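sry for the spam today, last one i promise. struct tokens for design, 235 residues
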């Protein structure tokens, strides 16, 4: 709620407000997607990749400006509820990045020493799926170009019971082009039908690699910034 701009209870005024019909997520994984949502930057540009682990010593940099900080400048009170996942050390937490109130967890609720069946993790437990996370495909308008990469999904895998997560199905994505307007489920690869679209998106991808880097190709971008880090004396 803003002290300068009254906002009625309930939904925003649909008629006079802004209606968003097309949404892009900068990455399909925890920390990176949140970094983009809060800062408006590609997560690679600000040094946030994939999902931060409970032992990570990095997080969102204090020099980055979040949407919460911008709103506070306009007189709004700010709060966040739920998963944060942009660093669990005090300097990275929401109250240090523009939020007045925070109730939630610092990282994913499956990042704890408990196996799929609810038993404590041991040296013989299988948790190798935590080592890899899906990479971001390239999308423009209705077109989505996917580059080959290892991936994982709950599709085709039995879920867990009693609130415990089940194991992921491991897979590998192939090079493919999808028309999301006609094929939202990404079932029909049309790269052979639209080679000119593939060529255009490949050129955009190479431009993005030069700018932001590419984890699959182990390339560092020319215009990336460091994420926040814990100083040696505070470890």
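last one done:
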């Amino acid at each position: 709620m803003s002290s300068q701009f009254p906002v009625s209870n309930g939904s925003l005024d649909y008629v006079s407000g802004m209606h968003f019909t097309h949404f892009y997520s900068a990455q399909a994984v925890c920390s990176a997607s949140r970094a983009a949502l809060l800062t408006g930057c590609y997560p690679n540009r600000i040094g946030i990749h994939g999902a931060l682990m409970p032992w990570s010593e990095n997080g969102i940099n204090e020099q980055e400006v979040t949407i919460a900080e911008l709103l506070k400048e306009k007189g709004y009170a700010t709060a966040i509820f739920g998963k944060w996942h942009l660093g669990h050390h005090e300097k990275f937490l929401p109250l240090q990045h523009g939020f007045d109130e925070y109730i939630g967890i610092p990282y994913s609720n499956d990042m704890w020493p408990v196996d799929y069946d609810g038993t404590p993790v041991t040296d013989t437990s299988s948790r190798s799926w935590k080592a890899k996370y899906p990479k971001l495909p390239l999308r423009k308008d209705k077109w989505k170009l996917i580059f080959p990469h290892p991936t994982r999904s709950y599709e085709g895998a039995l879920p867990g019971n009693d609130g415990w997560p089940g194991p992921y199905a491991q897979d590998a994505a192939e090079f493919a082009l999808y028309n999301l307007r006609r094929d939202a489920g990404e079932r029909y690869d049309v790269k052979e039908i639209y080679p000119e679209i593939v060529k255009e998106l490949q050129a955009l991808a190479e431009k993005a690699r030069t700018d932001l880097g590419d984890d699959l190709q182990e390339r560092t971008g020319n215009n990336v910034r460091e994420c926040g880090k814990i100083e040696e004396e505070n470890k």
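The two ends are 38 Å apart (CA to CA). ok im logging off now
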